[in-house]
Amino acid sequence: MGYDLQMKVWRGDATGGELVDYTVPVEEGEVVLDALHRIQATQSGDLAVRWNCKAGKCGSCSTEINGKPRLACMTRLSTFEDGETVTVTPLRAFPVIRDLVTDVSYNYKVAETIPAFAPEPRPADGAYRMQQVDVERGQEFRKCIECFLCQTVCHVIRDHEENKPQFSGPRFFLRYAELEMHPLDTNDRRQLAREQAGIGLCNITKCCTEVCPEGIHITDNAIIPMKERVVDRSFDPVTWLGRKIFRR
Ligand code: SF4
Ligand code: F3S
Ligand code: FES
Question: PANTHER family per the record (predicted)?
């Protein structure tokens, strides 16, 4: 059964903007992205919203809906109370380009700073071997769709642009953990995770885990184990002595 949905959508650009009221005819079973598309089709053809798959898999339609970072294509209108106004705003941690589209290039710049997977040489028979438990651990991390909802919700950069140069954010702590826990990888990224990625600035609020649409246990399975490894490397006396000798 159809009904009229009351919406407020942020419209503007890098110089400023405001919430604009819309009354949108919607159908039962629709999602927030359907309502935004109807606004584009019938009321404001120039409304900018980024999307691609409409299936929760491309990570493009990330917005903030009633103040919570969410995928617009996976947020059912039935989530809201009868008569509740649905407010859609751009991701707060990133600069606005136009309307709901933000410039997320900070994330790609961070990605470039992480040394790539560097596997050990192949064994004589040419076949890499891994324990099944290691395969499964990595699979959870590789479910990431790079929606950057965890990045925008993290208080370390959400309202603190000045922290970005020294903080990579939860999505990239996940990447550090994925590579660091890979049994065939030969790089040691623990010092980088501390000094360049700023993992020490994370105080385990777990907001990133709460918003992850893939249900990845970012804090418990990636950040905390990574913090432990970083501490081991920094304070373990044998490692410390080894580093000293190596430096001579
Ligand atoms: Fe999105 Fe989750 Fe990946 Fe963060 S870890 S970018 S919330 S899928
Ligand atoms: Fe930020 Fe997640 Fe840590 S929200 S503070 S990275 S637990
Ligand atoms: Fe692809 Fe929403 S449009 S995740």
Answer: SUCCINATE DEHYDROGENASE [UBIQUINONE] IRON-SULFUR SUBUNIT, MITOCHONDRIAL, SUCCINATE DEHYDROGENASE IRON-SULFUR PROTEIN
In sequence order, what are the beta bridge partners of 16? 13
Protein residue with least CA distance to atom 2, ligand 1: 212
Tokens 């109807």 found at: 38
Q: Which atom of ligand 3 is nearest to the CA of 61?
A: 2
Cβ count within 10 A of residue 104: 21
If you take atom 4 of ligand 3, which residue's CA is the nearest one?
56
Of 15, 36, 12, 10, which is closest to residue 24 (Cα–Cα)?
36
Pocket of ligand 3 (CB under 6 A): 51-54, 56-61, 71, 73
Strand extents, DSSP E, the chain: 3-13, 16-26, 62-65, 68-71, 86-89, 96-98, 101-102
Name the one residue in this structure whose structure tokens are 């009633």.
66
pLDDT in tens, 116-162: 999 999 999 999 999 999 999 999 999 999 999 999 999 999 999 99
Which ligand 2 atom is at minimum distance from the Cα of 170?
A: 6
Q: Which three-class secondary structure string do you get for 206-221?
A: CHHHHHCCCCCCHHHH
CA distance 165 to 177: 20
